[in-house]
Amino acid sequence: MITLHWLYALAGLMFAAFAILSALDRAHSRRFGNAAFWGLMALSLLGGDAIGDFGNGLLVLGLAGLAGFGFIGRSHPPTTSEAERQTWSDRLGNKLFLPALIIPITALIGTLAYNYTALGSYGWVEPKRETYVFLGLGVLFALGAIFAWLRPPAIAPLQEGRRLIDAIGWAAVLPQMLASLGVLFAAAGVGDAIGSLTRMVIPEGSIFLTVAVFGLGMAIFTMIMGNAFAAFPVMAAAIGVPLLIQGYHGDPAVVGAIGMLAGFCGTLMTPMAANFNLVPAALLELKDQYGVIRVQVATALPLLIVNILLIYWLAFR
Amino acid sequence: MINYWPLIGILLVVAGFALKLNPMLVVTGSAIVTGLIAGMDPVEVVSTFGKAFNDNRIIAIVWIVLPVIGLLERFGLQQRSAAVIRSMKNATTGRLLILYLVYRQITAAIGLHSTAGHPQTVRPLVAPMALAAAEKQHGELTEDEAEKVKAYAAATDNVGLFFGEDIFFAIGSIVLIQQILATYGYNLAPLHLALWAIPSAIVAFLIHSTRLLILDRKLARRGA
């Protein structure tokens, strides 16, 4: 059966190649820093299950130290110039989109076929992970198609990949760090503390204000944790279930579903949700690392108000 | 008695981000302090952090698309995306991003949320298209204006994803809601929960597309 570990291995080999190419890049002022950083990512993906929890912990400290003290930087591997790219674009025309579409189409058709045809009954792929597996397969198909059609130098995909990953830098690893921080927060009882603080500000007897504190609490706690998944159990235990559902007889489906979406409004406004907010800023090479968040606030705030109103109207019909 | 001391970890994160310290150090520092306050010994803190990092490796998988995206950029994919938009008479940044918003919400709603995203679609396709449309409306963009258009492209992906995915009943967040409420004795069908995500999805579309049309007007006004 194809499991996630196959994909870890694929990604690990890619990061290992980035590390080796970094070390060999004499034009790069921080080449050994980059080599160590991507080398540690390769070690995590290839050998993370073999080095033990403490070993993984040291690996993470290494990543944080290399990134935090400025040992990694951008690189300029050989690629085409702006003018060459314009020429290629004119010459190849819209056919250039076809290899780009191979990845989403493979993921899309693969996922649909696996779930809605007999294909899924063979059990070839780890359950619930089929989209990731087909994404990986799509990457390999796309690479094959590009090589067959355009015949780039054999090393080109790895050098071009390194160009992009170095442009993203440590932001590529931050989402995984934040998820790990969430685990420590939970172990330390941060959720209980937040829940009890929220209960203190609830006014007696007002359904609307209780709904408002629930929605705001979801959004604010999501901003702190970077993730509505961490906020939901806490807010459900503090307000959602005891007050809105049991106390005021609100519809549990509405309180649950729209409460979660109130949390998603918080996700739009926090740097803690790095993969949605900081990674694209790096990926699009914005000067302001909070540029994406700044644009999202004016969508998130009115939407949060509407979600609070929707809970109030729909849960207490 | 509830122990409020672990909240210091949160204060450290907020202060670190506000001071624009390197987030990798802020997160690691906060994790260590939070663990120590919770009574773990240093080895236990490092081990817990390491185990969690290892358990979350799935987050790193999306980067396998980078060699393909980089290779296509080498052959002018961004230039081609821009050229397509320049050839369309009525394309504007706002209309283009509204179209992408619809696409993202619908594909996420049928469970195909991992098929698009910032590395896969926004950087190589959506952002260069949005920039080309803005240049058509406005003429040459200043750096700040180009930043804003690119930020809107990323924001549109996020809004579409967040307010589409919960309509799909087999997504993680719906399963989580269902499981949490079940522990209190409320057994709800995931499909029933997913239906209640539809009103918010519609409002999210209306609010964000209004903002995109306003962006269009701003771009057009300064271009004239």
Q: How many DSSP E strands of chain A?
A: 0
Spatial shape of chain A: globular
Order of helices and strands of chain B: HHHHHHHHHHH
Largest sheet entry of chain A: none
Shape of chain B: globular
- Our count of helices of chain A gives 14
Rg calculated over all Cα atoms of chain A: 24 Å
Runs of chain B in which pLDDT lies below 50 for 5 or more consecutive residues are none
- What string gives the helices and strands of chain A in order? HHHHHHHHHHHHHH
Number of strand elements of chain B: 0
What value does the average pLDDT of chain B take?
A: 90
The termini of chain B sit apart by: 65 Å
Strand content of chain A: under 5%
Helix and strand composition category of chain B: mainly alpha
Question: In the residues of chain A, how many domains can be counted?
Answer: 3
Transmembrane segments (chain A): 6-24, 58-75, 96-119, 131-152, 164-188, 200-221, 228-248, 254-279, 291-315
InterPro entries (chain A): DUF979
Organism (chain A): Sphingomonas cremea
Keywords (chain A): Membrane, Transmembrane, Transmembrane helix
List keywords for this structure.
heterodimer; A: 317 residues; mainly alpha; 3 domains; 14 helices; 74% helix; B: 224 residues; 2 domains; 11 helices; globular; membrane (chain A); transmembrane (chain A); DUF979 domain-containing protein (chain A)
Textual characterization of the structure:
The complex is a heterodimer of chains A (317) and B (224). Chain A is an all-alpha fold and 317 residues long. Chain A has three domains: 65 residues, no CATH class; 84 residues, no CATH class; 142 residues, no CATH class. Chain A has 14 helices and no strands. The radius of gyration of chain A is 24 Å and the shape is globular. The model of chain A has no long low-confidence stretch (mean pLDDT 92). Chain B is an all-alpha fold and 224 residues long. Chain B folds into two domains: 49 residues, no CATH class; 163 residues, no CATH class. Chain B is globular, with a radius of gyration of 22 Å. At the A-B interface, helix 1, helix 2, helix 3, helix 4 and helix 5 of A face helix 1, helix 2, helix 3, helix 4 and helix 5 of B.
